[in-house]
Design a protein that fits this description.
322 residues, 13 helices
Length: 322
């Protein structure tokens, strides 16, 4: 699909805690939009508190797609997301609504906007042996080996590190090489709105979010999932917040240290997200006269309603220029 044939779609990005959901819900009060979530953690059913899924009242106000897709322990790749989201985009338009992609998982957004690489065939038996080996390693050793095998490895958790290792070892070329040299076209043209906050303000919001999660039952949520037989390091439970609670429940982390551990991990995660968005999205700008293929950076200290009104007005202008 050529660039001119791909629809232009607003993509609201930013680090965890910056207020993306609140802005999307406020935008929905101004015009009929549906949110396509690009969040690798919110795809898991039953993992609600630690993934900061939209509240039921918010889901009533604006339709959301891309959440509650799989059970903890299952894997969900950027490729699967791109295939699913392509169908969601078409369905939202058929309903007469405007799709808005909202999320903080850069690889999901890249898969939609820039396309996926054509995966080479991988030997099944060798792949399973590698996965069994990777399952015995901690997150830090996995990330170390991924970075050794792929100099462009940008982090992103156990699943992404294991993926980089298996592709490099089974094909002789790094995952980043395949993504660069064997890429197919994306299914949309992104209009990026990058929400940012001053460091101190973002850290305050993150601290407030962590406190809400712990007060709201995060420990009980994890305990219930583990009681149903999900492995402690299974996909979903290896995410920020969840792995710290698992460590506490297993006695590897003192309960008095849990809040600080979750807070530190969340801050590191937000920093990685900001680094990715600064370096991977095209042409940052704060100029409201920007072109549709640039990135519009907005200070999210303004109330969500004001930000939504500004974005909706600029979106109408961008559409008229395309």
């Amino acid at each position: 699909m050529g660039g001119a044939d791909r629809p232009l779609v607003p993509v609201l990005v930013g680090p965890t805690g910056v207020g993306k959901t609140a802005v999307a819900v406020a935008w929905a009060a101004l015009e009929p939009i549906s949110v396509i979530g690009a969040d690798a953690r919110q795809v898991y059913r039953r993992l609600n508190i630690g993934t900061a899924k939209p509240e039921p009242a918010q889901l009533t106000r604006v339709p959301h797609l891309g959440i509650d897709l799989i059970d903890p322990g299952e894997r969900y790749s950027a490729g699967r997301f791109a295939r699913d989201a392509s169908g969601w985009l078409a369905r939202v338009r058929a309903e007469g609504r405007e799709p808005v992609v909202v999320g903080g998982t850069g690889f999901y957004i890249r898969a939609l906007a820039e396309g996926l690489f054509r995966e080479p065939p991988l030997d099944y038996a060798r792949r399973e042996r590698l996965r069994a080996w990777a399952g015995l390693l901690g997150a830090a050793p996995l990330a170390h080996w991924a970075a050794r095998l792929d100099r462009r490895f940008a982090g992103g958790g156990r699943q992404r590190a294991a993926r980089a290792i298996e592709v490099a070892l089974l094909t002789g070329r790094s995952l980043s090489w395949w993504q660069r040299e064997a890429r197919e076209s994306g299914v949309m043209r992104p209009w990026y709105i990058h929400l940012t906050l001053p460091r101190d303000a973002l850290q305050r919001r993150i601290a407030q979010r962590v406190d809400r999660m712990l007060d709201g039952g995060l420990i009980e949520e994890v305990r219930g999932v583990l009681a149903d037989g999900v492995a402690p390091h299974a996909p979903g439970l290896d995410g920020v917040g969840y792995r710290e609670v698992v460590a506490m429940l297993q006695g590897r982390l003192a309960e008095r240290d849990l809040r600080d551990a979750v807070l530190a991990a969340t801050r590191r995660y937000a920093k990685r997200q900001e680094t990715w968005f600064r370096n991977q999205l095209r042409g940052q700008t704060s100029d409201v006269r920007r072109q549709a293929d640039e990135v519009w950076t907005l200070d999210a200290t303004e109330p969500a309603e004001g930000l939504a009104a500004t974005i909706a007005a600029r979106w109408r202008s961008v559409q008229s220029d395309v």
